[in-house]
Amino acid sequence: MTAQAGRKTIAKGSDDSVCVIIAAMNAADTIGAAIASALREEQVTEVIVVDDASADGTSEAAWAADDGSGRLRIIRFDANQGPARARNQAIASSSAALISILDADDFFIPGRFTHLLAEKGWDLAADNIVFVDQRRLGGFNASSVERFSPEPRLLDLPTFVERNISRRNRQRGELGFLKPVMRREFLERHGLRYNEKLRLGEDYDLYTRALAVGARFQIINNCGYGAVVRPDSLSGRHRTEDLRQLAEADRALLASGVLSGEGLKAVRRHERHISGKYHHRQFLDTKAQQGIAGALAHCLKHPSAIAPIAHGVFTDKLDGFLQRGGKKAGSVPAPAELRYLFSGPAAE
């Protein structure tokens, strides 16, 4: 099978053939735009959508975006399995040499893969991300995205992990947001797949494990991925259990023996960060279910959690105070200007 007539012909099994994987749940309103942005890329020979037991007609909306080239395939789960399981199923069902992840409410900037695949010698390759406020989508035009000089460089394990530790009062910019293209051969050689226990941080976990076994992770400044910022995103509604599982994934990697030096130290710091968030959330859950007396009793049973719980409670109170003092009740902030995961020199 080849790409659509009228485009440059890319053989499905060639070194530059790309399979775009979209895990989708209740994404009927956005899945069409995501698929269209993938199908217009000439290097894309497969688009596999995994409908993770949606209840809103996501599969029908996905089929409506088909361009007739034969590249679109849809897999539907009868019961929700989570994004990691959905992506693993798509990887197993695909045959292209390169795997590219696209979230169901995001989109590719035209020409993304031409820029991203220009350089060789990598196992994972990612580009810059433009964050677009949902309220700006109606007037968004890809030509408004700033052009940066590519400046290819390799991302190391300590830097990647450190850039996934969120900082209070800083705009979100974790490198786990990156959506790299991954070489199938590298994934197969190292037996790498998404951790299906995770519903939070599954991207961070996979990329960290890839770097731990020697992946050459290239990033460029050119912006080829559009991430839509929504106040009701799934990543902003994670469960307490999701935090526990992510901390467990860090601990499993620490126990594997593959880490050393600064990479080992960085993963330890990330594990402490996530564990602290988990203990704070667990304290709040216990308080909601059993009252303050039950929450305090929980602390006494888990003394090592007292410090992160106290820190979390303090920062929650401080943030609430600052918000009340800086915003009028009921006010809605204006949509933000376009922002980028990382900046660089303008392209000539």
Automatic annotation (TrEMBL):
The record, for Gene3D superfamilies, names: Spore Coat Polysaccharide Biosynthesis Protein SpsA, Chain A (3.90.550.10)
Q: Which residues cross the membrane?
A: none
Per the record, the domain of life is: Bacteria
Q: Where is the Glycosyltransferase 2-like domain?
A: 19-155
- InterPro entries cross-referenced by the UniProt entry: Glyco_trans_2-like (IPR001173), Glycosyltransf_2 (IPR050834), Nucleotide-diphossugar_trans (IPR029044)
Annotated protein name in UniProt: Glycosyltransferase family 2 protein
Q: Which Pfam families match?
A: Glycos_transf_2 (PF00535)
